[in-house]
Amino acid sequence: MLAAVFARPALAWAKECGKLDFRPAKQLQFKDGVYYFGKIPAGTTASASFTVENIDLHYSADFASIEVMPDPPFAIDTAGTTCKKGEFVAGATCTIVVTCSPTIDGKFKGELTFTSAIKECAKKGVKLHCNGVAPVGTPTATATATPTATATPTATATATATVTTTPKASPSATGTATTTITITPTATITATATFTGTHTATSTATPTATATNTPVPASYSSCTNNLTASFQHPDVTVWSTNVAVVGTDGTNLTAFLSFDGGSTFGSMPITLAADTDSTIKPACKWRLDVNYKLDCAYYTGHDIDWVSYDTVSKTVSGPNTAISTSNFPAYLPYNGVLYLAGYNSDGVAFTQSTDGSSWSTLVYPFGQGNNFAVPTIAAGIKGVVVTGQGIATGNLQDIVGSTYNGTSFSPPYNVYIAPTTNDSVFFGPTNTFMANTQLFVFAGDSGMSSSFVFGAYGDLNASMPTFKTVQIATGYLPIDGFLVNPPSTLFAAVGISAVNQWAGLYQGDITIPGSATLMDLNGVTTYQIAGDGNASLGYFATVTGENATSGYLCKP
């Protein structure tokens, strides 16, 4: 029955090809998909650097090969190239350097091609033109006979010019600072005792998977407060230069939208749906089918509903009830399928849809009746992963995960085990991401004796994955983080300090303890946070009082 209900629909149009965009460093030499090297003296080499980006909203590209033809005179300069074979996730960027080295004069035509591992996907690339010309001659002194025997040649010194290059050198607001969400489990419900994964809170190990492209460092150096919104419990979603900040005000679910990288938001807000609850933040994501769409799953006070806004036709689809009598929505559109999870009295429930109007029968990744809640959803090359949090022994809140392959869920595996036996902890909604075969989780351990935020990561190639944990910072409670340029391990995250309750922006390598650096984001009392971004921008929302949200655009 499970296979019949959850078999992935065969969508003929849903090819997982990705969309590649090629941007040369010398734009004037690039026209109509052809890069012109120009005139290159024979015996010399000219190079061209391209930034390659997968601009698709959710499809990954999977490179089987990257090559130039003919070779020679064209070649790939491996020293400056970061593009590699393997998965190239949506939003990822890499660099490729192509050279032309003509040995004779003549016109040469070639092509740089990225070939997909999926046979239905066409090759992508750039055509190359290179014009080899005769080398510039070097004058050679020729002796001239002088008829006068007494003539004495006079040596003339030739000055050689040497060029030396020298490098150039918010106002405070009041509110109730309650960010901890408490779920009191039924005493007879316990987590499955067969979860055997282990973790070390201070592990310094690095993941065994090798990233397929070199990341752009997480280095947001300046942040600008450019948005004031009259709602709270915000969620932020960023795709390319499209930014959405969505929140609830107790009356409506509303959104602020930007299509210029978060610089301006136009005439806002947009009402997405009537909202009867203002205590649980929605889960919103950009989706690209035919037109740009913004989808949200949100809690209505008793159900989880789904709604979609088409930014081209400016129309709303829904709201439609996706999971009845449930809360804490987790939502992700991926490869033409809409995945949604929530929490109800039976634990974490999971459903899917292709149009948002009808949703499949609920299944429970961790078993029906197990005490797990506050789910997340991540997806990528290894499938769809659902996580949940639940009470285990010693009143600890653990994080577990299960992978969905389109037909069934894997046995649950431990992502994080609370490190002490005396703390009653709750993480709040976590953030999960998949990059290549790795699953990354950001969360906060709000134990009574200590609090800290951490990242956990594990390789999903294993039948029972084990996860390593790196502590990002101490004294922080909620966290909202993301990988800046998957599959890199560089991250950006915003959290609220337990000392001054300000929002702080952390950046670093999730696999390296102590690598994170801190930048104060707002300097005022903060109660809720949200964030998302990429290598070009980060956008963060902070709540400083009832129905008082500020937005911050951060740039490298």
Count all strands and give the number. 37
Low-confidence parts, pLDDT < 50 over ≥5 residues? 1-14, 138-217
Structural class from helices and strands?
mainly beta
Taken from the alpha-carbon principal axes, the silhouette is globular
The CATH class assignment of the largest domain is Mainly Beta
Helix % is under 10%
Largest sheet: 6 strands, mixed
Radius of gyration: 28 Å
Q: At the fourth CATH level, what is the homologous superfamily of the largest domain?
A: Fucose-specific lectin
Strand content: over 45%
CATH architecture grouping of the largest domain: 6 Propeller
Number of spatially distinct domains: 2
Mean pLDDT across every amino acid position: 78
What's the helix count?
A: 1
CATH topology of the largest domain: Neuraminidase
The order of strands across the largest sheet is 2-3-10-9-5-7
Calculate the terminal CA-CA distance, rounded to whole Å. Answer: 50 Å
How is this structure best described in words?
The chain is mostly beta strands and 556 residues long. It has 2 domains: 117 residues, Sandwich (Immunoglobulin-like); 334 residues, 6 Propeller (Neuraminidase), CATH 2.120.10. The chain has 1 helix and 37 strands. The strands form 9 sheets. The chain has a 6-stranded mixed sheet with strand order 2-3-10-9-5-7, with no helix packed on it. A 4-stranded antiparallel sheet has the order 1-4-8-6, with no helix packed on it. A 4-stranded antiparallel sheet has the order 11-37-36-35, with no helix packed on it. Strand 9 and strand 10 form a beta hairpin. It is globular. The N terminus is likely disordered.
